Amino acid sequence: MAIKFSILGLLIYAAMALWVLSAGGYALRRPRTGDWLFASGFPVLVAAFIMRWIEVEHAPLQNMFEVFVCLGMLTYPLWCFAHRFLGARGPAINVVLGLIVLFPAGFVFHAEPQRLPPALQSWLFIPHVTSYMVAYMILMMAGGQAALQLAGLGGNKEPDRLEASTYRLVLFGFPLLTGGLALGALWGKLAWGDWWNWDPKELWSLTTFLAFLGYLHVRSQYGARHPILTSVLAIVGCAAIVITLLWVNLSRMFPGMHSYAN
Amino acid sequence: MRTLALWASWTAIAALAALSILAAFGGQERAKTLFNSWPMVVFWCLLIGVLAGGIASCPRQLLLRPASLAMHLGPILIIVGAMLGSDKAVHLAQRLLDRPAIPSGVVSIYRGEDTAGVYGRDGNLIGQLPFPLHLDDFRIVYYPWELWAATPTGPRPQDLKAEQIPWRVGHEFTVPFTQTRMTVLEYVESVRPVYAQGAAGQLEIRPPDAPAIVLPGKVGQETALAAPAIKVRITQVFSRLQVAGSGPQLHVFDADEGPENPAFAVEITDANGAASTRYVMSLAGMPPTVVSGAEFHYLPAAMTGVEPDPSTGSPAMRVRLRPADGNSVELWLVVPAGADKVALPLNALLGPAAQEPQEKATVWLARGNTPVRQYQSYVSVLLKGDNLAVDRQEIEVNHPLRYGGYSFTQDSWGQDGRTYTVLGVKYDAGLEVVCVGFALVFAGALWFCWGRPVLAFLRRRPHAHGD
């Protein structure tokens, strides 16, 4: 762990401080304060993202640091969308999600700028990674809703609403997950000669896809009649996302062709 | 039947997920072997059956829900396409339908030569392509190297403060930690040094406790040392020393192309008459050759300029230095062959013009952490038995060549006296089926997850204008 004494690092820490205060606002039952502080972190992270883009002269989605800054930046706008259009509840849990995502960017991952290697010199770089980043955040929010529902938080009607919002979030994120997988297959064909190479990253991405496919399959067959089962499936899918995004990239247990993301 | 199909589908999803997790722990090669094994062929066929059974169990509902139909049909096509393109299927087609094809492998082609042989990753010949490939040229496109300034902050060599200098040609800037202004006048990404006509390196011999001796770099030049008591004679002069083989098969030779690697072969005869050959190289960072305490160094010839040479990968930068109090100096920063940086100590260069702040500052031209932007192989496809090129294409990473049912991707490259490129080869059987399958799955997911809910929402909205 190390503190980043750069403007980029300070912007990340500023966003984290705002979100810690936001979480405090929600905890103290001051939702308006919480909302404003949550919102104010977004422009700070946009500035950090743009600054990084200018510094590295390509879309900053290459390594773990850049990906997690991107995920942090996406937290607030995706929460707004999910709350407004998909019925998502519990902003506090999404603030905590944003903090969890920013922490390794701020204190763990190396921020040394890197140039794009030949394998990443492709028009598919931005759509493939972006598709997955948006999908992961939305599906993690779905997991958050499922966790709230399993924890029994909220009133009598909340469990149904939370179950419904989980379903809508998974519905929104699943095509993005599918698109990321399809674009990855296309990119693999162009870069490595084969659309599927049995790389650990690919296998865990497939596992994540199958987890949410299983969720949708059960949900479309039984509706909302088995909320505990579907919530558990959503959380299992989130666990697969965490493994795909973190463990596969960081562990020496899974060397593979996606190692440039380390 | 519907219940059976449901349970079969959930079992199949869980089984595939579990196998994927298991295979991920085993690594890429083991995963490939597992999923292409005969038991897995049975699994894939069962999975196709489950998906087809899902369609068959509720055909009317699926016909009314094209998204669901697409999401069941798509994976069937993906699996069928993958099986058609597998090594087993290609070999089977070869035997049953007399359709010769090589499922996958690599092709290694030297610059200026052609070949049709496809090899496995283990180096064994797999087969011959139906058309030869000719490597017209191979190039590496490099990122510009980085400029850094460093100044010592303490007595130890590692006590340094460094700062990267953003540069571009024609732009003047102040060198950090100094008052010297610097302008990059020219940058050439891959060069070789040019020397005056007849100029050559020199062999410098530094005996312990005696003045150094310098020999002209020519074959036959010799001298004798008193301490140690040895005779030294230059037996060979290299421009591009390269080494092949090992042990008894070790072979040292002067290559026709490739990066500059000037060197001398030196015969050293001791007081007993025993002779041995040692090599003295100019590569930056190489320790000197030492014999009985005497150090042997390669002194490079004075350089007069640079010439572009794509094979070296070593750049050069022409700069102008303008100290705060003194005349401007123009010079070339040339990276030696094989080196990853070159230093420009300002005080040594500017002499009396060096002011106190830059007395110890050094400017470095250094390779970045990702030096290569792209690898480019210029390949011609030839008619078999003819030198006529029917197709010519530049292959880069992410830009493969597709011809005759095969895809050729930029895999790697190398040099063993001559430059060669290595292309990955893949027979594209079933690829179109896979593409249609992915398109169906994606379109189905889009319509199921986004299209239908949006349509349902729009239908539920109250009509406007009193309809």
Could you characterize what this model shows?
The complex is a heterodimer of chains A (262) and B (467). Chain A is mainly α and 262 residues long. Helices cover 74% and strands 0% of the residues of chain A. Chain A is built from 8 helices and no strands. Chain B is of the alpha+beta class and 467 residues long. Chain B has a 4-stranded antiparallel β-sheet, with no helix packed on it. In chain B, β27 and β28 form a beta hairpin. In chain B, α1 (2-26) packs antiparallel against α2 and α5 runs antiparallel to α8 (431-460). Chain B is elongated and about 100 Å long. The mean pLDDT of chain B is 87. Chains A and B meet through α6 and α7 of A and α1, α2, β24, β27 and β28 of B.
Topology (elements, then pairings):
The complex is a heterodimer of chains A (262) and B (467).
Chain A: H1 7-27, H2 31-56, H3 64-85, H4 91-107, H5 125-150, H6 158-192, H7 200-222, H8 227-250
Chain B: H1 2-26, H2 28-35, H3 38-57, H4 59-64, H5 66-84, H6 87-97, E1 104-110, E2 114-119, E3 125-142, E4 146-152, E5 160-165, E6 172-174, E7 181-188, E8 191-195, E9 202-206, E10 213-216, E11 222-225, E12 230-238, E13 241-244, E14 251-254, E15 263-269, E16 275-281, E17 289-291, E18 294-299, E19 303-308, E20 316-322, E21 329-334, E22 341-345, H7 346-350, E23 362-366, E24 372-382, E25 389-396, E26 401-403, E27 406-415, E28 419-427, H8 431-460
Antiparallel strand pairs in B: 1-28, 2-3, 3-24, 4-5, 4-23, 6-7, 7-20, 8-19, 9-10, 9-18, 11-12, 12-15, 13-14, 15-16, 17-18, 20-21, 22-23, 24-25, 26-27, 27-28
Helix pairs in contact in B: 1-2, 1-3, 3-5, 5-8
